[in-house]
Write a structure and sequence with these properties.
163 residues; mainly alpha
């Protein structure tokens, strides 16, 4: 028996997409590859570098604080995506699965998650400032805006958990 959209929840599908994006494109291997092999002055290079924004690492040459902040940003991005997907009512109010409201709810969830993950992790930096927090939130929201389309597409056709 094939598992169709009847078994795909919006929250689960969006969270899984966010987790895959963070695990694959936030990995140290991808970050090293994209830094060494792309041109940031081209649209493709910019896009590939943007995908590596929630970098996580376990490099022993970095300070413990930098490792924790980077990893916390990646973890918070996934957790907050799940939270916002659960809380946003767009797909709950849709009459049918697969409507555009599910896409926008998934996309918006990733934008909000990126902004809040960056904002919250700024508090753990050595010298946090309000300007630094705003700039981090801006970069997180920008990442969510351009990459969140993938999460929005992943949420299409899912159910909300209650029938």
């Amino acid at each position: 028996m094939a598992l169709g959209n009847r078994y795909k929840s919006v929250t689960g599908a969006g969270t899984l997409a966010a987790l895959i994006l963070v695990l694959v494109f936030g990995s140290p291997w991808y970050a090293d590859w994209v830094t060494n092999n792309t041109n940031p002055d081209t649209a493709g290079g910019w896009w590939l570098r943007l995908l590596s924004w929630p970098r996580w690492s376990f490099d022993s040459s970095d300070s413990l604080r930098d490792i924790i902040v980077g990893d916390l940003k990646a973890i918070l991005l996934v957790v907050l995506t799940a939270l916002f997907l659960f809380l946003l009512p767009g797909s709950q109010l849709a009459r049918a699965r697969g409507t555009i409201s599910q896409f926008f709810a998934g996309w918006a969830s990733y934008i909000f998650a990126g902004a809040f993950a960056a904002l919250l992790t700024t508090l753990f930096l050595a010298n946090p400032s309000l300007l630094g927090a705003f700039q981090s939130a801006s970069s997180g929201a920008g990442y969510g805006f351009f990459v969140g389309i993938i999460v929005g597409l992943a949420t299409l056709g899912g159910y909300r958990g209650t029938k």
